[in-house]
Write a structure and sequence with these properties.
This is DUF2723 domain-containing protein. This protein has 554 residues and is α+β, with helices and mostly antiparallel strands. 54% of the residues lie in helices and 11% in strands. Strands 12-13-14-9-8-17 form a 6-stranded antiparallel beta sheet, with no helix packed on it. Helix 6 crosses helix 18. The relative contact order is 0.09.
């Protein structure tokens, strides 16, 4: 019944974004699964990011063979997987609370999973199809923990086999498998003091779960080292070794995002008529400062040490909170070397997907520990409504962006054999991915894959892209002479992008692009203008540049 209710909630909540996930990295994946030989697809041949995701590749290959590129089929899969994760989270944590003697284990568990479902920080994983391996990764992690939990009760060896086989599969999926052995060991330690057979079970969990998974983990590292000459897949060892340069303040910044919804704070903060400056940037700076990091890591170590020293005297509720706090801390450390999204919404929220379930279950314990009933209810309502408000907002951004992308793909005017230059493309809608300006052209790749009945005959270039704030945003062009066009954005608060980074000067065999100090750019053709057709985008429409007119064309 819980699964059905959560699934219905997710379906309604994410209905506006149901057709929004086929963007960005999805097109590269679709090209691979549709046109590459099976083994090249399985090994991600041709991808710039080196990783070992054969398990994920196989699962998505099977699903594609069954349902193709159906938007609804993939969307249903994603909300179903997220709901399954929420249900497993409830089973795991409600059982922990019950075993610790907490009478309110059911309402605490329900509160935690509902917060997990309505958080705006899960939208990137639920909507964006390239995030499949995050859903799959959390599913495997939670299954392993549930099986360890079942083993502590029954001692049945089948749960050992279930967990080890699942972990064996997971080492060729997303790198969340790095933390699985440690979470399993800490779960066994928790039950050491909760069950009559707990002491013996902890030793068995260490022997039958932790050590085999640790061996598989080591073999996976060695396999990658032998194949690719490095120890760490996807980001490389150097990124981890230079962690102090990347900023150990990221875990605290992520907590600022997740708990007070810090990513949604306005850039300019006002109290009355007085400006308080960019509060969000000031908090980021504090998190990265020596004082901020000392307070955070010192506080965590102190809390964990205090909990261990007083563990025997702690209440059952506090013991579960300590375990969830350890899991949250480990999950935050896992994502510390990765990129941190501080400019736009949504981007890189996926990295927190393994932190959110444990953190919000910890929050639920805190809320239900408040003795004042009305205070507890008021805090819970405020927290739920705030998360719902921003989840609805980001899902609307996903939906608006998807409608614009769909119209731009289906309504490009006829181009003949001429070379097409798209002067501006929508990079994102408040961070929700749309179309990146890339080389080779992402627009052409998306058009060929998603609108194959209307192929573009000539070459296509994506000049630059920009981040949209409203559905009407766009640019306009001015012809300076028979070979040079100046392109200006129509609105403030947006800027140029190229290849998923800030826009910059570049040139190729057909044109030279130079960004001017004022934020506009000049594009100079290298061949006669009659061989080109140029378009600029406003909202969901393409407009053709008339090279015979020298005034600004809107």
């Amino acid at each position: 019944m819980l699964f059905v209710c959560l699934w219905a909630l997710m379906f309604v909540l994410y209905l506006p974004a149901a057709k929004a996930g086929f963007v960005s990295d999805f097109t590269g994946w679709l090209q691979q699964v549709r046109y590459r030989p099976f083994w090249e697809y399985m090994n991600r041949s041709g991808f710039k990011v080196v990783s070992m995701y054969q398990g994920t590749q196989f699962v998505t290959w099977v699903y594609y063979q069954l349902f193709g590129a159906s938007e609804w089929a993939w969307h249903i899969l994603f909300i179903t997987l997220h709901t399954a994760n929420a249900t497993l989270l409830y089973i795991l944590c409600a059982t922990l609370l019950r075993d610790a003697g907490v009478e309110q284990y059911r309402p605490i568990g329900y509160t935690g999973v509902v917060l997990f479902c309505v958080s705006p920080y899960v939208s990137e994983v639920v909507v964006w199809e390239p995030s499949f391996h995050y859903l799959q990764g959390l599913l495997i992690l939670l299954l392993v923990l549930v099986w360890v939990q079942r083993y502590c009760y029954t001692g049945e060896r089948r749960y050992v086999w279930y967990a080890c086989v699942a972990y064996l599969f997971s080492i060729h999926t997303l790198e969340v498998f790095y933390i699985t052995p440690w979470l399993a060991l800490s779960l066994g330690w928790f039950y050491k003091g909760q069950l009559p057979q707990g002491k013996a079970m902890f030793g068995r969990v260490a022997r039958y779960f932790f050590l085999p998974m640790l061996l598989l983990f080591a073999l996976r590292l060695l396999e990658y080292r032998l194949l690719y000459g490095d120890w760490v897949s996807r980001i490389g060892s150097q990124t981890v070794l230079s962690l102090q340069d990347a900023g150990l303040g990221k875990p605290l910044k992520y907590l600022f995002h997740l708990l007070p919804l810090g990513r949604y704070l306005p850039a300019e903060w006002h109290i009355g008529s007085a400006s308080m400056g960019d509060l969000r940037s000031n908090i980021y700076a504090f998190c990265d400062s020596g004082v901020g990091m000392t307070m955070f890591y010192g506080g965590c170590v102190s809390c964990f040490a205090w909990g261990l020293l007083r563990y025997g005297k702690m209440s059952g509720r506090a013991k579960v909170a300590l375990l969830l706090g350890v899991w949250t801390f480990i999950a935050l450390l896992l994502i510390t070397p990765l990129w941190f999204g501080d400019l736009l919404l949504i981007v890189y929220d996926r990295y927190t997907y393994f932190t959110i379930p444990f953190l919000f279950m910890l929050v639920a314990i805190g809320i239900w520990s408040i003795r004042g009933r009305y205070v507890r209810v008021a805090l819970l309502v405020v927290l739920l409504l705030a998360n719902l408000r921003y989840t609805i907002q980001v899902n609307r951004y996903w939906g608006k962006g998807a409608r614009i992308v769909d119209r731009l793909l289906h309504h490009l005017p006829e181009t003949g054999d001429r070379t097409v230059i798209l002067l501006n493309m929508p990079e994102s809608m408040h961070g929700a991915p749309m179309m990146s300006a890339s080389d080779p052209s992402e627009y052409k790749l998306m058009r060929d894959l998603l609108v194959p009945e209307r192929p573009i005959k000539g070459k296509v270039y994506d000049a630059l892209s920009f981040n949209m704030v409203t559905p009407d945003d766009g640019a306009h062009a001015q012809v300076l002479n028979d070979s040079t066009i100046r392109v200006k954005l129509n609105q403030y608060g947006t800027w140029w992008w190229y290849q998923a980074m800030g826009g910059h000067d570049y040139e190729n065999e057909d044109y030279k692009l130079r960004i001017n100090p004022g934020g506009d750019y000049d594009l100079t053709l290298k061949k006669p203008a009659n061989g080109y057709i140029l378009f600029y985008q406003v909202g969901d429409k393409w407009k053709q540049v008339d090279m015979s007119k020298t005034y600004e064309q809107y």
